Amino acid sequence: MKPIVETENLGKEYGQKKIVANLDLKIPEHSIYGFLGPNGAGKSTTMKMILGLVKPSAGQVKVCGTVMNRKNRLEILKKTGSLIETPSYYGHLTGRENLEIIAELKQVPAQEIDEVLETVRMENQQNKKAGQYSLGMKQRLGLAGALLGKPGLLLLDEPTNGLDPAGIQEMRELIKSLPKRYGMTVMISSHLLGEIDLMATHVGIINQGELIFQDTIEHLHEYSKKRIRLRTLDDGRAVLRMKDKGISVHKGREGFLIPDLADEVLAGLVRELSDSGIGVLRIEEYQKNLEDIFLDLTGKGMSL
After folding, report:
1. Do the beta carbons of residue 297 and residue 303 sit within 8 Å?
2. Are 92 and 129 in contact (CB under 8 A)?
3. What angle do CA 94, 98, 102 make, to 5 degrees?
4. pLDDT digits over 232-249, tens only?
5. Which residues fall within 8 angstroms of residue 212, CB to CB, at 6 or more apart?
6. Domains of the chain (ranges plus CATH)?
7. Are 201 and 217 in contact (CB under 8 A)?
């Protein structure tokens, strides 16, 4: 799939502080691109640069194959929708009245308002003042406004922040439906790996302003290789015995880790350890979950 968003050596500095550095994003068309990173990693700044809300210190942004600049920014933005940080709204107006203003600014037909209200499931709340909405309803209102005009690209910055579990699930299912329903490409930032895992087709991981992983969610899962965790009465001697046999050993939180072995090979190994006076206390399968991988990728001095 061709990228609908592509950045080249994108960077942003405030004074002497680097917020984003040498960022090369490639967001495939019709994908849900999860943009992951710890708080303060540079996610919001990157999304603002893609939208032209923040001027890059270095590099460039391409949207739909066109390099964004001051002259064409507004034309490009007509093809995008966004919900960055907190939703903006007029609290004294109803949800529908807020959407009517956005529709007029975007120059889209008024009948689209009914469609987006149905999409975000707030038809019954449309005539309530926006200032009286719950946080979840405000998020839905912001998303409804972003959907007006049926943009080809939608950028959502931490859209599940502050939502209760039911609200998170509803927002997740809604986001997942957008590429198929409207042919959209969705870029969604989060520091919650579990949420991205349930939604995204592609993932980019940023840490301290630098991209440290970018690929499909399936490829990210491939880093989770099954291994065997062993714990013995004398791990030091056991590790030496493993190395003598040419078995790679990695220190684990409890005991040590060796590659996944065939059952008969593992049984022979355990027997050999026992015969050598090294009592085996525990044998178990161990497989990294995505949280472990995320911590490895973003941890100090650690990478996969």
Report:
1. yes
2. yes
3. 165
4. 999 999 999 989 989 989
5. 205, 206, 297, 298, 303
6. 3-217 (3.40.50.300), 226-287 (3.30.70)
7. yes
